UniProtKB/TrEMBL annotation:
This is Sugar ABC transporter ATP-binding protein. The keyword DNA-binding does not apply. PROSITE patterns: ABC_TRANSPORTER_1, ABC_TRANSPORTER_2. It comes from Shinella sumterensis. Keywords: ATP-binding, Membrane, Nucleotide-binding, Plasmid, Repeat, Sugar transport, Transport.
């Protein structure tokens, strides 16, 4: 009987008094796409870090192709045939695709005076494309590439060694459009046919049913379920309930009652930004959530940044609580009372090397500081701790650098930063990218809570999210606003407006 591509037995890992993993058994078959599921803090990140050599296991054993291994660092994991593509691959923007693929392995022969032959790099890259056919121009720089092309380069970089048997993909579609996701899934299917096993980590549960052969669910540091995806479909099981260990009645909180809708907080008229969007107009009232659905390229991200003063506008007006404002920078927007939770939290929302306390208090230094601008350290720690508890930050370590948190918990820190800012308008862009189903429900509940005292705008490329959370909606399509006077009423109307740019009757 052929040994599986990877087998883990009784894996355990502790961090001080915390059991991150307890007696985890796991099998990955050859040529299988295996989805790994679990809410933030369930243990899946710890497990893949052990497999990829970032962490050392405390107990248990790991085999690759029937051979026992013990990876003490990522290089050793790669040597044993396990490669990992992180959620945010580190690529050199000014280098070409093929230069990135062989970064650190440019010379065919090692040595102090080895020469880098770019013609040879190109030849080696083309040979790799013959093994894993995909439509991509590797002569372009990474800066010129789309999100899916960058993901493909990262995957090819991981597979550059002929001996790779196991590929770990961590949230590979978090920044991809639906069309780009299809391109990536074709490549994954090619890998499957080539006999490479893929361990696929995602919070997008619909993807599991589309791409995976099997799935395993982590909860509380233990493996609580492992089964073929076909069985999930046949038995009509709820993946969300498997992950949470309880019935999931409502992901989205109830919509606001009509008498809960208050005065207009924000009025936008004819707002225009060159090359991004034109003639955008809406009113946002206290007590409600406005949902805006727009695909990549629709102008949704640019609209959020224009309202936050991060990009200039060339026409139109913005009235906040009865006063016309024209923020020329995020600092001016924050001072006026507008807070943005950006779509790219790592680049635009967080200082990754700093602590949670530093990040949470950064947007309201007036509140964070006392006499003569001296920081209120005790008060800031107390306030940050209260927000962390309210958002169920895991682990609740306020002194740890933000880079050490999972993507979902990093998003919670950005939201806590917004709470500390005490804004009148909160703008959420792609609020649940990389966030598990349990944390999503908490974030949606918090948005509804915020709408009681402030105006809330949610801009999302997920139509179900924009429609499910909002009281009123409209769509953006190629920089144009698609909406009747009273907003789009149904999910299908919103979807068709966002993908076709036209109003349709259900």
């Amino acid at each position: 009987m052929t040994a599986p591509a990877l087998r883990a037995r009784a894996i355990s890992k502790r961090f001080g008094p915390v059991n991150a993993l307890s007696d985890v058994d796991f099998v990955l078959e050859t040529g299988e796409v295996h989805a790994l599921l679990g809410v933030n803090g369930a243990g899946k990140s710890t497990f893949i870090k052990i497999l990829s050599g970032v962490y050392r296991k405390d107990e248990g054993s790991i085999e690759v192709g029937g051979e026992a291994i013990d990876c003490r660092d990522p290089k050793e994991a790669i040597r044993h045939g396990i490669a990992t593509v992180q959620q945010h691959p580190e690529l050199v923007a000014d280098f070409t695709g093929y230069e990135n693929i062989f970064l650190g392995r440019e010379a065919a022969r090692s040595g102090l005076f080895s020469r880098i032959e770019r013609t040879d790099l190109s030849r080696r890259a083309n040979a790799l494309l013959k093994r894993f056919p995909v439509d991509i121009d590797l002569s372009k720089t990474v800066a010129e590439m789309s999100a899916v092309e960058r993901e493909i380069v990262a995957i090819l970089q991981a597979l550059a060694g002929d001996h790779i048997r196991v590929l770990i993909l961590d949230e590979p579609t978090s920044t991809l459009t639906e069309v780009e996701k299809t391109v990536l899934f074709r490549l994954i299917d090619t890998l499957r046919q080539a006999g490479i096993s893929v361990l696929y980590i995602t919070h997008r549960l619909e993807e599991v049913m589309e791409i995976a052969d099997r799935l395993s669910v982590f909860r509380g540091g233990r493996m609580v379920a492992s089964m073929p995806v076909a069985d999930v479909k046949a038995k009509n099981l709820s993946l969300a309930e498997l992950m949470l260990g309880e019935a999931l009645d409502h992901v989205f909180p109830p919509r606001a009652e009509p008498d809960a809708i208050g005065e207009t907080v924000l009025a936008v008229r004819g707002l225009t930004a060159a090359g991004a969007f034109s003639n955008i107009g809406f009113e946002l009232r206290r007590g409600e959530i406005l949902g805006i659905f727009g695909l990549v390229g629709s102008g949704a991200d640019e609209l959020a940044k224009a309202l936050f003063g991060a990009i200039p506008v060339e026409g139109g007006s913005v009235v906040l609580k009865g006063h016309t404002i024209a923020p020329r920078s995020p600092r001016e927007a924050l001072k006026a009372g507008i807070f943005l939770v950006p779509g790219d939290r790592r680049v635009e929302g967080l200082a990754l090397t700093e602590t949670s306390i530093f990040n949470i208090t950064l947007a309201n230094l007036k509140r964070a500081s006392g006499t003569a601008g001296i920081l209120k350290r005790a008060g800031n720690r107390t306030a940050s701790g209260e927000f962390a508890a309210r958002l169920a930050l895991s682990p609740p370590n306020l002194s740890m650098p933000v880079s050490g948190f999972s993507g979902g918990n990093q998003q919670k820190i950005v939201v806590a930063k917004g709470l500390f800012a005490e804004a009148d308008v909160y703008i959420f862009v792609e609020p649940t990218i990389g966030v598990d189903i349990g944390a999503r429900a908490k974030l949606y509940g918090l948005m509804r809570e915020l709408s009681g005292t402030a105006g809330v705008i949610v801009l999302s490329s997920d139509c179900d999210e924009a429609h499910g959370i909002a009281d009123r909606t409209f769509a953006l399509y190629k920089g144009r606003q698609i909406a009747p006077p009273d907003g789009l009423q149904t999910r299908n109307q919103l979807l068709m407006a966002g993908i076709m740019g036209e109003l349709h009757r259900d």
